[in-house]
């Protein structure tokens, strides 16, 4: 990338307050419905923009929803600090879920520390050990879970619905901002003064583990910086596959 001027930037969008109020009301209504229908609802946050919109809604309307984040052992320092920022801003607690040490050791023994670059199989194995398995353990016993997924994030997510069945885990999965556009997301975050992950200011619209995430150009797909050495159909880690 030749210069920072060509990097993706946070959209500077202004929408009518009436429209933003409707977004807020719809989000909070959806979260209230979810929390009233299920006794044990859990939200997995990456602390990036979409998940911060959902966190904002939870903090204001559905505090019974349990929030956790996956501390994979390969996160940016900014992500670790962001957890503290969010907890302080909203006065809530976010559980940090870590992978099991023996699983990490087994992966390194088989593939090497950064073996995920060598093949898609190794990448999937790393994601499973550091993210998917910890997620499964974190959702054990839950009645439902929530994500910040949106249709417009990537080609792999353009058929999202508000409610889906997580067939792997056998529980409902809710996507309360599934129908938000990019403009609506960033306008809402600015309107509500929601804390933003520092990497969004450095050309990262999507944020994952440090070795597998990079800044993108302004005209790239929003998830182009995730596992950039793989094709578009491989831009998922396994957390959100049915």
UniProtKB/TrEMBL annotation:
<keyword id="KW-0479">Metal-binding</keyword>
<feature type="binding site">
    <location>
        <position position="212"/>
    </location>
    <ligand>
        <name>[4Fe-4S] cluster</name>
    </ligand>
</feature>
<feature type="binding site">
    <location>
        <position position="126"/>
    </location>
    <ligand>
        <name>[4Fe-4S] cluster</name>
    </ligand>
</feature>
<comment type="function">
    <text>Catalyzes the formation of sulfite from adenosine 5'-phosphosulfate (APS) using thioredoxin as an electron donor.</text>
</comment>
<protein>
    <recommendedName>
        <fullName>Adenosine 5'-phosphosulfate reductase</fullName>
        <ecNumber>1.8.4.10</ecNumber>
    </recommendedName>
</protein>
<dbReference type="GO" id="GO:0004604">
    <property type="term" value="F:phosphoadenylyl-sulfate reductase (thioredoxin) activity"/>
</dbReference>
<dbReference type="GO" id="GO:0051539">
    <property type="term" value="F:4 iron, 4 sulfur cluster binding"/>
</dbReference>
<dbReference type="GO" id="GO:0046872">
    <property type="term" value="F:metal ion binding"/>
</dbReference>
<keyword id="KW-0963">Cytoplasm</keyword>
<feature type="active site" description="Nucleophile; cysteine thiosulfonate intermediate">
    <location>
        <position position="237"/>
    </location>
</feature>
<dbReference type="GO" id="GO:0019344">
    <property type="term" value="P:cysteine biosynthetic process"/>
</dbReference>
<dbReference type="InterPro" id="IPR004511">
    <property type="entry name" value="PAPS/APS_Rdtase"/>
</dbReference>
<dbReference type="GO" id="GO:0070814">
    <property type="term" value="P:hydrogen sulfide biosynthetic process"/>
</dbReference>
<keyword id="KW-0408">Iron</keyword>
<dbReference type="Pfam" id="PF01507">
    <property type="entry name" value="PAPS_reduct"/>
</dbReference>
<feature type="binding site">
    <location>
        <position position="209"/>
    </location>
    <ligand>
        <name>[4Fe-4S] cluster</name>
    </ligand>
</feature>
<comment type="pathway">
    <text>Sulfur metabolism; hydrogen sulfide biosynthesis; sulfite from sulfate.</text>
</comment>
<comment type="similarity">
    <text>Belongs to the PAPS reductase family. CysH subfamily.</text>
</comment>
<keyword id="KW-0411">Iron-sulfur</keyword>
<feature type="binding site">
    <location>
        <position position="127"/>
    </location>
    <ligand>
        <name>[4Fe-4S] cluster</name>
    </ligand>
</feature>
<dbReference type="GO" id="GO:0005737">
    <property type="term" value="C:cytoplasm"/>
</dbReference>
<dbReference type="InterPro" id="IPR002500">
    <property type="entry name" value="PAPS_reduct_dom"/>
</dbReference>
<keyword id="KW-0560">Oxidoreductase</keyword>
<dbReference type="GO" id="GO:0019379">
    <property type="term" value="P:sulfate assimilation, phosphoadenylyl sulfate reduction by phosphoadenylyl-sulfate reductase (thioredoxin)"/>
</dbReference>
<dbReference type="GO" id="GO:0043866">
    <property type="term" value="F:adenylyl-sulfate reductase (thioredoxin) activity"/>
</dbReference>
<feature type="domain" description="Phosphoadenosine phosphosulphate reductase">
    <location>
        <begin position="43"/>
        <end position="215"/>
    </location>
</feature>
<dbReference type="InterPro" id="IPR014729">
    <property type="entry name" value="Rossmann-like_a/b/a_fold"/>
</dbReference>
<dbReference type="InterPro" id="IPR011798">
    <property type="entry name" value="APS_reductase"/>
</dbReference>
